[in-house]
Structures are given as C-alpha cells and as structure tokens.
Amino acid sequence: MRIVYTFVLYLTVIFNSIECLPVRDPISDDSRPLTSNSSARPHSPVRPPSSAEILLRARSRPPPIRFAPVRPLPVRSSSVRSPHVRFSPVRPPPVRHSSLLILGFELEDRGLIRLIPHINPHRRFKIQRFIFPADKPIRLRGAGRHFGPMPTQERNVLTTSTDVVVAIMENNTFLRGIYNLDGTRRMGISMSNGTVFELSPELANETPLGTRHLITKNFRIINVNDILPHN
C-alpha cells in the first residue's frame, strides 16, 4: 500500500511540472507565407487523460450523499372510528352460570319449583332459604357417618308443604340429613317456630341422602306455572 501511494505521488509531481511550462500560441495558417513548398501540418489529436489523472480526479471527488430509506407512512384503516360517529357497544349474550341455577331453574323461580318423589307422587316438596338456630340439639350428617355442626349461613333447604325442613340441599345436587346429637335419629325443624322433632319413616324414605342419591334421579322437578289446571 505504501508503494502505490509513493507511485501516485510521483505521478502527481510530474503532472504539475508539465502544467507549469509556458504554452505557446499556435501559429495560424493565414499568418504564414504561402510557398509552393509549404504544406499544411495536421492538428495533433486531443491527449486522453492518463491513469494518474483519473486516479487523482476520483480521489478529489466528494463522497456521494447517501439518504436513509424512507419508510412508508402507515395506512389508516377505514375501521378507525370517526369522532363524529357514535357506535353502540356490542354486548355478549348473558351467560347462565350453574351457580345461578337451581336444578335447571333460575333463582327467582325458587318459590315455583316443586320436587315430587318417585316413590310418592302425591307429595310436594319445596325449596326455601333458612338459617338454622344455633341453640338447637341437632347436627348435620356429612360424608359417611361423620357428623358436624349445623351451618350458620342461610342455606337452600328442602321443606314440606307445611314448611318443615327435612334436609339441606348440598350444591343443589344431593341432600344432607339433620340428626339428633348422638346421630341415631333423623330430625326435622319447623320454619315457623323452630320446633325440632323426629321425621316420620315415610318422609325419611322419600328424601334419600348422600351423593349416591342425586335429586334429579329421585325426584320429578316441575314448575307450578307449567302445570295445566284440571277441568
């Protein structure tokens, strides 16, 4: 690389020394006397630039201007809302959660639901809300033969037509029984006065307990508004 640079510098010095020599004006043909022996000398052709001149011109040129690529502006979609146009929000249809249903019926229809036991089509049970008194000698039967205290919150309960609570509805799918303190007798409680008494064998048989006896398998579930009146 150093040798090339020295060679170029040497050519540059020679080229500058040539340009500094005096230039003599060419004598026109009209100013010279015409003789019989004189003949017109041809003009010398234009000397092409040497490789040294081309190299010097290339180095003396300013670097080309490079422009950064222009990114196209994003096209605004026609779906962009105009500030002068009002759109009504699209609301999804309401979802019916299982926690808001009782055996397939809406919560507000609780008072219209009737459960008819398959073993006694003449009985009508209802679904009501009830808070158990804390001072009553009763316990709740859990899984197997395990017993625990009665719930303190309001619960869905299965009642007779005379408002006697015979069982608690667990997850609206099966029944939990109410027993005396030693767990030997199944009990019921009146919603009107809180009286606790032993259930009759008929009521106990019509309301089987536990996860093996699902409500939908042991009862016919109806809405009283769907029953046609008898003629």
How many H/I helices? Answer: 4
Gross geometry: rod-shaped
Poorly predicted spans: 26-40, 94-100
Rg from alpha-carbon coordinates: 55 Å
How are helices and strands ordered from N to C?
A: HHEEEEEEEEEEEEHHE
Major sheet? 8 strands, antiparallel
Helix content: 10-25%
Task: Name the average pLDDT.
Answer: 75
Helix/strand-derived category reads alpha+beta
β-strand percent reads 15-25%
- How far is the N terminus from the C terminus? 120 Å
Number of strands: 13
Describe this structure as you would to a colleague.
It contains 4 helices and 13 strands. It has 231 residues and is an alpha+beta fold. β7 and β8 form a beta hairpin. The protein is rod-shaped, with a radius of gyration of 55 Å.
